Amino acid sequence: MCEENSRTQPRGADGSAGDADYGVIGVDYARYRRPEQAFVAAIKDALDDARTLVNIGAGAGSYEPAELDVTAVEPSAAMRRQRPVDSAPAIDAVAEDLPFPDDAFDASLASFTVHQWRDLRAGLREARRVTSGPVVILTCDPRALRSSWLDEYAPEVIATEAGRYPAIAEIRSCLGGDVAVTAVPIPLTCTDGFSEAYYGRPEALLDPGARLANSAWSFVDRAVGERFERTLRADLASGTWDDRHGHLRTQPSYDGSLRLIVGRP
Questions:
Q1: Using one digit for the tens of pLDDT, what is the confidence trace for 14-46?
Q2: What is the pLDDT of residues 61-114, one digit of tens each?
C-alpha cells in the first residue's frame, strides 16, 4: 500500500533533503560510487527510445546517459559540487516538488535515491507527472539485504538499511500503471561501491571512506564500525572469513538486493 509520509524535518545544512547529511558523508562520494557499466546498460535498455531525461536525486551524476538531453535534480550542494564539469547542470530541488510542467520529459531516472525521499508517494507522483514515458528506479529490496555476509559482522547496518529502503510493493503501488521489477546481478568487480558491491572483496570495506559512501553507516554508533573493522580484520587474518565465504571471491556475480523498477503509463 502506498502511504503518505509525514516527515517534516528541515533540509540539511548543504541542502540534503533526506535523512542523511551528504554535506558530511558525501565529500568523497564520487570516488567510491562510480557508475557500474552493467547497471548503465540495464538502465539504457529500460529508457526505451527516450531523448529527454530528468535525473531525480542525481547526486554526483551516476547513470546519466551522455547521449540524452539530461536535466538533473539534486538538493545537496556537496553532491552537486562533485558532478563532472561536462555533466548537465543540476537544479536545486527535491523529488516531491519538481519545478517542471506535466509530461516535460520522455523518461525519468532515480538511482539509489528513493530511500532518501521524505515522501515516497509525493516523489513518485511527481516523477510520473513530469514524465510521458518510463519512470526508471534503481533501488534495493529490503527483504533481500540479510543474505549478505555483512549481516554477520554489522547487523545494525543491515537493519538500518532495511528500515530505510521502501518495500518494492510500495513503490509498485505508488507508481501505478504497468510496473516491471527485475533483479539486477552485481558483478564481482562492481565499481559502484554500495555495500553488496564488495561481496567478494571484503578488504575494501575496511576502508572507512568506502563505508562512509554507504549512508547507513552514518546512522549507527561509531563503536559498530570499530567492532566491524576489528572483527573482519581478525577473520581475514585467521582465514575464518574465507572458510565461510571464500567462494565469493571468484563468483562472477551476486544475486543480492538490487532491483530495477520500470513504470510505464
A1: 444 455 555 444 456 678 889 999 999 999 999
A2: 889 998 999 999 999 888 898 888 888 889 999 999 999 999 999 999 999 999
Could you tell me the pTM of the whole model? 0.87
Long-range contacts of 100-104 (CB under 8 A, 24+ apart): 100/54, 100/71, 100/130, 101/130, 102/129, 102/130, 103/129, 103/130, 103/131, 103/132, 104/52, 104/54, 104/130, 104/131
Q: In which residue are the cell numbers 530505510 written?
A: 164
With cell 535515491, the residue in question is 113
E strand or H helix that includes residue 179 = strand 178-183
Contact between 5 and 55 (Cβ < 8 Å): no
